[in-house]
TrEMBL record:
Signal peptide: none annotated. Gene3D superfamilies: alix/aip1 like domains. It comes from the Eukaryota. The lineage of its organism: Eukaryota, Fungi, Dikarya, Basidiomycota, Agaricomycotina. GO terms for cellular component: plasma membrane. Residues 1-446 form the BRO1 domain. Residues 274-287 have a biased composition (Low complexity). It holds the Pfam family BRO1. It comes from Mycena metata. Residues 271-290, 404-446 are annotated as: Disordered. PROSITE patterns: BRO1. This is pH-response regulator protein palC.
Length: 446
């Protein structure tokens, strides 16, 4: 199950109070007002979400609200760059951080200057909402693979929902990367020397970490979908031999290894000095600007969990496809997987117990076969480590493309208006040329 993000909340702001329409035709007065209304809608739904239980939060509504607001915010920003709108004063946006470690277990509120700050936090909230929406969809599926009465048609419907959820996570990953690689550098270039420090939520390292974590979350769903049919076929007789519908154990192990690598990289990025050192706002109770312990714990446990599953499937591959020569490898990898799962058992949910039961079934079988038929020594962990392949990525992040401004330069409205002006100029030219030469010999000199 993917990480459950706590959604931020934000304070109110009126763009009409900080923006002046300086265009010749006063084109943007209504747009400025509409942007204020869209942001008020965003503030209201975030406030409502704060008071709603996790299972009842409407993440889809939040996604749609953000998709309405972001193009309007972009419109304000491009108009300012083009001189169509001027700022009366630097706008300050109030956002409550949700990824900062906090001594009092509450989210500190920060006041951040510049429109770049609001763009960054709005996009961050957008990615959170997509990820949480994916989690909600997966939670609704239950453990359908273990339902012996499920039909093939119903199973495929569930698998399609896994695909939808994975796609949402890939989109979230792309947004986190966009924040890190584009929005934050743009903000840095536009910032004044006196600009306030940013929380960990808005550090490039943490957003890179979240991009990797979301991609790993998506990959876990791809693995689940890949194993869906074989998990159903294994309901009656779990363990070896694998059903014919089972995908290659070697492939499954590589997919888990990539998950582990992504979570591990995310964990490292979330703990980098720059993601902690830049984040402590003056007067906040944030614990040295660190990322929340919940997120760090999640990344650590997912790293260990997928490492263990990679060892499991390497052991199964050795046992099923390695023949006599790899009988010891099968036992060694499964012992290693069992050890890592047992370290997690007290901290995690039912999935740890389920995987531990599965590992024990395979281990008993392959140990019995090795002790009675193969008689191969069980390698040490260091020997087995040298035989672990590199991971394999099944999905890629969805590249985020900044939304087209709802108004101003580059918007459809602007393109349409310019086209109409050109058409009008063209019609005027034709009309003028029609008047000239309306009699025989007009324009000729004798």
């Amino acid at each position: 199950m993917s990480y459950l993000y706590e959604l931020p909340t934000t304070g109110a702001i009126s763009f009409s109070e900080v923006c002046t329409d300086t265009s010749a035709e006063k084109l943007y007065i209504s747009h400025i007002s509409e942007t204020t209304q869209s942001r008020a809608n965003l503030r209201a739904i975030l406030k409502e979400s704060k008071r709603t239980q996790d299972g009842e939060k409407d993440y889809l509504k939040l996604v749609k609200t953000l998709e309405e607001y972001l193009p309007k915010l972009r419109g304000i920003m491009v108009c300012i760059v083009d001189g169509e709108i001027e700022l009366k004063s630097e706008p300050t946006f109030s956002w409550r951080t949700t990824l900062s470690a906090n001594l009092f277990n509450n989210s500190p509120r920060l006041s951040l200057p510049s429109l770049h700050a609001d763009l960054a936090y709005s996009l961050l909230t957008y990615a959170f909402a997509l990820s949480n929406l994916a989690r909600t969809k997966v939670s609704a599926l239950g453990t359908y693979e273990h339902d012996r009465a499920i039909s093939d048609a119903d199973r495929k419907v569930k698998e399609n929902q896994l695909t939808v959820a994975a796609d949402l996570l890939c989109r979230a990953s792309g947004i986190f990367s966009y924040i890190s690689q584009t929005v934050l550098p743009d903000w840095e270039r536009a910032a004044t020397p006196s600009a306030s420090v940013k929380p960990p939520d808005l550090s490039p390292e943490v957003n890179n970490a979240l991009a990797k974590s979301s991609l790993a979350d998506a990959q876990t769903l791809a693995i689940r979908k890949l194993l869906s049919k074989s998990a159903y076929d294994s309901n009656v007789t779990p363990g070896p031999p694998l059903p014919k519908s089972h995908p290659s154990p070697a492939l499954i192990s590589k997919l888990h290894l990539e998950c582990s690598s992504l979570y591990s990289s995310a964990r490292t990025l979330a703990k980098t000095p720059s993601s902690a050192g830049k984040g402590k706002a003056k007067g906040s109770s944030s614990a040295d600007g660190e990322v929340s312990a919940d997120l760090r714990r999640y990344l650590n446990e997912e790293t260990v969990f997928h490492d263990a599953l990679a060892r499991k499937w390497l052991g199964v591959d050795a046992g099923e496809n390695g023949g006599t020569d790899r009988g010891g490898d099968a036992v060694g990898f499964l012992i290693w997987a069992k050890k890592e799962l047992e370290e997690l058992k007290g901290r995690k949910k039912d999935r740890i117990s389920d995987e531990l039961d599965s590992v024990n079934v395979f281990l008993r079988h392959y140990k019995k076969v090795n002790d009675s038929l193969h008689f191969r020594p069980v390698p040490t962990q260091s020997d087995l480590q040298s035989r672990i392949p590199t991971g394999r990525l099944a999905l890629a992040a969805k590249t985020f493309v900044s939304p087209q401004p709802a108004f101003g330069p580059g918007s459809m409205e602007d393109v349409r208006r310019r086209a109409e002006e050109l058409e009008l100029d063209d019609d005027t030219g034709k009309s003028g040329s029609g008047t000239q030469g309306s009699y025989a010999g007009a324009g000729s000199y004798f």
